[in-house]
Please model this.
Amino acid sequence: MNAFGYHSPARVADAAALRQRHADSTYIAGGQSLLGAMKLGLAAPSDLIDLGNLPGLSGITVQGDVLRIGAMATHATVAASTDVKKLIPALAQLADGIGDPAVRTRGTLGGSLANNDPAACYPAAVLALSATVHTERRDIDGDSFFLGLYETALQPGELITGVSFKVPQRAAYVKFKQPASRFALVGVFVSQGAQGTRVAVTGAGACAFRASALETALAKDWSTKAILDISVSADGLNTDLHASAAYRAHLIGVLARRAVAQAG
Ligand SMILES: Cc1cc2nc3c(=O)[nH]c(=O)nc-3n(C[C@H](O)[C@H](O)[C@H](O)COP(=O)(O)OP(=O)(O)OC[C@H]3O[C@@H](n4cnc5c(N)ncnc54)[C@H](O)[C@@H]3O)c2cc1C
Model:
């Protein structure tokens, strides 16, 4: 790991200003992705701007039919939240299934979304629950947030402050875990509610995406039977040492049916 400067601002505006002042700096949340990348030499920021002391970034609040979760809320906090468990149990379950206790204790919602790992779980929830990503500059529609492999709509230095999830009538997230890391080999999040009928897939492509054929069928008939005969194309899906694109395509259908059954 290269030497780096360290800053621990106490205000969001100061964090953003530091990020602008040090062109090769980066934010650090729980360090669960960043530190690994730095150790491997994949990232070599000149300065780390620690978001850990910024006030007001880790709370969870309910505003009508919207659940707002702060960017610095850890996965363990989301998993244990009474409000999340009551309003969107699928989201609490998703958070509880991320990595292992150490990762859940340090890893954050904002870090997960900003990093946009192709196998991350939260991006599927953002798409399936029609979420809005809040930054210190603007609100970004979840549907236009994930642009590609580790690529998001965030501009350089833009800081995620929180995410608003629409409370669905029903929802479920089912993932087929890569057994070593517990990242999603494939994960499918289904939901139905004011946001419509949504099916979001993670782990299978360059970034999370919505499966429109499954959504159309489920919008007409929310049942496992309705999607039994829909085959998902393997075109453009990931092939790696863990699974082929064809295997991942098959898993999308299987997991979507399990998720629909689980959502009830
Ligand atoms: C062993 C292991 C297993 C894992 N398993 C899973 C899994 O099953 N499912 C899953 O979804 N994830 C998994 N993860 C990833 C984990 O969920 C982390 O949350 C994720 O890596 C982000 O970590 P972090 O919040 O600590 O962010 P960091 O590592 O601190 O930062 C990651 C990136 O996001 C940027 N960033 C951080 N916060 C913000 C912000 N608020 N605004 C703008 N940019 C920001 C940083 O600059 C950096 O580029 C796993 C990680 C490990 C190490």
Notes: The chain is about 30% helix and 25% strand. The two ends are 48 Å apart (CA to CA). The pocket of flavin-adenine dinucleotide is lined by residues 26-34, 51, 71, 98-99, 103, 106-108, 110-112, 114-115, 120-122, 159-160, 181-183 (CB under 6 Å).
